[in-house]
Design brief:
Length: 203
C-alpha cells in the first residue's frame, strides 16, 4: 500500500525543526514534532536535524528516546539525518566525544567537524544522485564527512574541488538517508522530496 500523504516526525530536541517541517510539508508530507517515545508510534518516517550531536545524544537519553528510536530504526523506519543527524545515524564515529553514542542504522564511519575548525561553514554546488534538475546548493556548518562506507551503502554525493575534493557528503542505505549539509536552509526542497518518496515506498 502506498501512503499518499505520509506523516513524518521531526526530532525536536535541537536544530532547524521548523525549517525541516516546512520543507517536508512543501513536498506533500504531514509532519509532527517528536519529543516523546509515544509519538514515534504514529509516524511513517523521521528526520533528525543538525545541531550538536553530543548534545542531541544526551537529550535523546534524557528524554528516554534513545532506545525506542534505535528499535524503530532497527525495525526499518525510514530516516533522514542532516549534519549532526548524519552523525546520529552512523554506526561509527572516528572521533567521538567522551561517552558519545549514536543510534546507528547506517553502515558508515563519520568524522565530526571534518572540514576543519577554521572552515566553520561554506557552500558548494553538488550533484546528488537521485535528485534531478541540476546541482543542489549545499550549506555545510561544522559538518562531518563520511570516511568509510559499508558494502550496502550507496554514495549519493561527493565534494568536488578544494581540500575536501572527493569526500563523501551524502549517502543512502535502504530507507535511511543522510547528508553532511543542511538542505532545509536553502529553500530547495528536492532532498526532502527524495526522502518523502522513500517513505511513500516503504509505507
Ligand atoms: N559539528 C556538529 C556535531 O558534531 C554538527 C554540526 C551541525 O549539525 N551543523 O554534531
Amino acid at each position: 500500500m502506498t501512503v499518499r500523504r505520509p506523516t513524518i516526525g521531526v526530532l525536536a530536541l535541537q536544530g532547524d525543526v521548523r525549517e525541516h517541517r516546512a520543507a517536508l510539508e512543501a513536498v506533500g508530507a504531514a509532519t509532527c514534532a517528536i519529543r516523546r517515545p509515544g509519538e514515534l508510534e504514529r509516524i511513517d518516517g523521521i528526520v533528525l536535524p543538525g545541531g550538536e550531536s553530543t548534545t542531541i545524544d544526551k537529550l535523546l537519553r534524557a528524554f528516554d528516546l534513545s532506545a525506542p528510536l534505535r528499535s524503530a530504526l532497527r525495525a526499518g523506519m525510514p530516516a533522514y539525518g542532516s549534519c549532526a543527524g548524519m552523525i546520529l545515524l552512523a554506526d561509527r564515529i572516528t572521533d567521538p566525544a567522551s561517552g558519545q553514542q549514536t543510534l546507528g542504522g547506517l553502515d558508515i564511519t563519520v568524522r565530526r567537524n571534518a572540514f576543519g575548525r577554521q572552515v566553520d561553514s561554506f557552500e558548494s554546488d553538488l550533484d546528488v544522485s537521485g535528485v534531478v534538475g541540476g546541482p543542489v546548493r549545499a550549506v555545510f556548518i561544522r559538518a562531518p564527512w563520511v570516511e568509510e562506507v559499508g558494502a550496502d551503502v550507496e554514495v549519493l554525493a561527493r565534494v568536488t574541488g578544494g581540500r575536501a575534493d572527493g569526500r563523501i557528503v551524502a549517502v543512502r542505505q535502504g530507507f535511511v538517508l543522510a547528508t553532511s549539509f543542511h538542505p532545509e536552509v536553502t529553500g530547495d526542497v528536492r532532498v526532502h522530496a527524495l526522502f518523502v518518496e522513500m517513505v511513500r515506498k516503504r509505507s
